[in-house]
Amino acid sequence: MAVVTLFMSDRDTSRTFTSKKEADDYDKMLELAEAVSHFMENNIEGLSEQQVEEIGLVFARNKDRMSLALKGKTEVLFESADDSSNE
After folding, report:
1. Looking at beta carbons, which pairs linking 32-41 to residues 24 or more positions away fall under 8 Å?
2. Per-residue pLDDT tens for 12-39?
3. Which of 18, 43, 47, 50 has the most CB within a 10 Å radius?
């Protein structure tokens, strides 16, 4: 019988991963999503809690593309997610 080590996310205990790096990366993504959500909530009136959370997750899941766009390469935001994986 094989023993498999699983790592849990600190921020989402329903998620488990087979490597510590994957769990840490997921936690970092959730931390970024929370920070972006907080920023949006404080700067844009009228957004629902669900919208704020979704905006945070979209930014966090696409942080590499957002980083390129913020550095002036805005065309990456017009590409589909499949197109950007080739970079």
Report:
1. 32/56, 32/59, 32/60, 32/63, 33/57, 33/59, 33/60, 33/61, 36/60
2. 989 999 999 999 999 999 999 999 999 9
3. 47
User: For residue 16, what are the β-bridge partners?
Assistant: 8
**Domain range annotation of the chain:** 26-84
- Return d(Cα 26, Cα 72) in angstroms, integer: 27
Tell me which CATH code domain 26-84 carries. Answer: 1.10.10.710
Other CB atoms within a 10 A radius of the CB of residue 30 amount to 18
Q: Which two tokens stand for residue 87?
A: 């970079």
Q: Is the pLDDT of residue 62 over 90?
A: yes
Alpha helices in the chain (DSSP H): 20-43, 49-61, 63-70, 81-84
